[in-house]
Amino acid sequence: MSATASYRKNLTLIGAFFFIFGFISWINGTLIPYLRIACELEEWQAYLVTFAFYISYTIMAIPSSSLLQKTGMVKGMSIGLIVMSAGCLLFIPAALIRNYAIFLAGLFLVGGGLTLLQTAVNPYITLLGPPGSAAKRISIMGICNKVAGILAPLIMGSIILKNASGLIEQLQKMTPAEKTVRLDELAKDVILPYIFLAAILLLIAILIRYAHLPEIQTDGTGNATTKDIHRSTPRSTYLMGFTAIFFAVGVEVLAGDTIGNYGLYLGVNLDIAKSLTSWTLACMMLGYLAGVWAIPRRISQQRAFFLSSIWGLIVTLLIIILPGRLSIAAVALLGIGNAMLWPAIWPQALKGLQDKALARGSAILIMGIAGGALLPLFYGWLAGAVNHRYAYLILLPAFLYMLYYSLLGLREKES
Question: What element of type H or E holds 254?
């Protein structure tokens, strides 16, 4: 097989993984209103869905890095898929007894498996080709991720929240006993989809062994030794990259997973609100397509990062200023700028790292995904304390930091 054909095959295989990442991750946007109804939750409690899912990245990133060093990439990915499958299967007992804590445990386990996969795959796609086009390759992966993200709320919403508005009206008219029976039935609607997901993940875990995907090679191909790299890589480099990823994932998850509840707050019918996450993901798709078209031929990845941060600041202000459904549209439009944050941060944060420093840097950046756990939870608390619209002001410090970090990247390129 030629080098070009091998490159395309590897890109396609990794793209398939990013599709899986997207479908599993963006189901959360539908699970939040679904579990809020089924488990009778307060608003801030519903955002524990994102907390349980994304906090696993922080907890499991370092262990995942250590495990991958022992198992290698391919076997490690298989293990990650098996762990994700186990997390999906936990939804069965959770649904049968309608226990929110078990649902959260299942989400944590799914997130833990994804951590293992992403710890391997993100540096792989960064190193697959020239550094100057790394953001373009990650944008292609983002397209795979967001296609799945657009489909996930539509498919899952039609299964677990069918006739959603009629359901809320029914529950309001029921006696406590009737309501309990109906909510038990609603909780069981999630069982079949998650059995199907678990089976698919197990099948892929088996098939990946035969895909001939090459291992990540980070073993001393550079000029500097590992000891020298550690000496020349200050902790501030890791910390700044971690913080940038923290905010980038936080604003991405916030825009995707809160828009449904924000729509309900502004009077949108639940039959529509349950799929609003797809609007944000469609806007992210536009951002990724623009990145693939423009980087690096028409714009550098550092400048795309800078412009995306500016876009986020402007659109956040529009969310606060615009009335009604225009404000909801502004939340979705955050997706256009959010698309280029993750792809541009990874190559900037990992620049010049090799060997153990690269593995360490990758694990620390993966830990930054905790932003997806904490920012939506903080948003839910603010929405209850103030209101849903002004709670979006927490986006401003996030975009301001990323604007600063993008300017550092531009200065490094020019110097």
Answer: helix 235-257
